[in-house]
Amino acid sequence: MTTIGIHDIELATTHNVLPLADLAAARGVDPAKFEIGLGQSLMSVPAVDEDPVTMGATAAARLIERTGTEGIRSLLFATESGVDQSKSAGMFIHGLLGLPQAMRVAEIKQACYAGTVALQSALGVIARDPEAKVLVVMSDIAKYELAGSGEPTQGAGAVAMLISADPALVEIEPATGVYSADVDDFWRPNDSTTAVVDGALSLKAYLDALSGSWDDYQANGGHPIGEIDRFLYHQPFTKMARKGHRELAKHTGAELTEDVLEASFEYNRNLGNTYGASIYSGLISLLHHDDDLAGKRVGFYSYGSGSAGEFFTGVVRDDYREHLYREPIQSELAERNVITFDEYVELHENVLPSQADAETPRVTKAPFRFAGIKGGARQYEAN
Ligand code: HMG
Fold first, then answer.
1. Which residues form the active site (predicted)?
2. What is the CATH architecture of 4-382?
């Protein structure tokens, strides 16, 4: 039987970073609240010439450099911080990377859950044609109002994954559990650059969708909890994964230890929320920091406000260690430009009008940049 799953994966983030200790000092909050209470240390902040397209293009370019484009006939871009109401952000990436024209390109949205919809769609494409490969890109900027409750959970990042038959990293198993409920826990109106959130309701909705999707997973041939070795949760902040794990233990009556979560936190605690990319940046972190994953089953809980949950599993390939590339992302994380609180506020408030012509200052050192607006259209270029 053909196995299908994640063949290669890459992560990219922004030029700037803000230490949460500096945010805490400016807001008069005990830094332990962010570091321990939320489990977050740093947050990525985009430069004026970065956005979900530039981050997504960077992650995808790194991946394509290794894999080439042969067999890739679909590019699915998942985001909730889309740059246009009509044109897929994936189409800009298609242009920046010079991808073949014989390709289907589209954008998918359902808050942080969209990346998983893209992944599941890719699995379906390959089930029909095992020779096909799908490039899935998730890229987001998590932005809340200044001084609001969500402020310390902001962040930014992109993940690119190549989905194929006979994958080198993780085989995704067929059983999956899904859950949807119309809830106003978090949303972003069309005319707003910041999300609106009901914090307490968002925590409840996340946990309700977890038990709901777990029950559906069990009803559809899922593995018993004792057969799952590691757990990966959507991580709006890393502490949320602990809350999810405790909820799953309570719901199933199982004893679950939290040490199986740790390796998946290493990148996200230093990126902040990357929305659609978050669970998959957790996956890269797990693969990069846990040496004992060969043949292990990983449980994925993907959540998106509004609200949607999905629980499924993947099995890590025996020789996965030979297919990991830690260098680009670890250097990028370490070399980000540390900004002050005042610079962060200035960047937060600096929103380029969407229709007036403008050029952006050249700041990012990433391979692609947002150059500005011309004739009302967004312009991107290689850096
Ligand atoms: P808050 O009210 O500022 O914080 O908002 P809190 O008072 O609940 O404290 C947070 C934690 O810090 C608590 O721990 C405190 O005890 C602890 P907990 O009880 O939860 O384990 N604490 C301290 N710890 C150590 N030393 C101290 C200290 N003080 C307090 N001195 C909230 C928290 C998460 C609501 C807020 O950050 C928020 O609104 N975030 C945005 C929404 C969010 O991330 N929701 C998560 C679930 S929804 C989701 O994941 C979807 C999402 O990604 C969007 C999408 O799908 O597109 C957001």
1. 80 (proton donor/acceptor), 112 (acyl-thioester intermediate), 234 (proton donor/acceptor)
2. 3-Layer(aba) Sandwich (3.40)
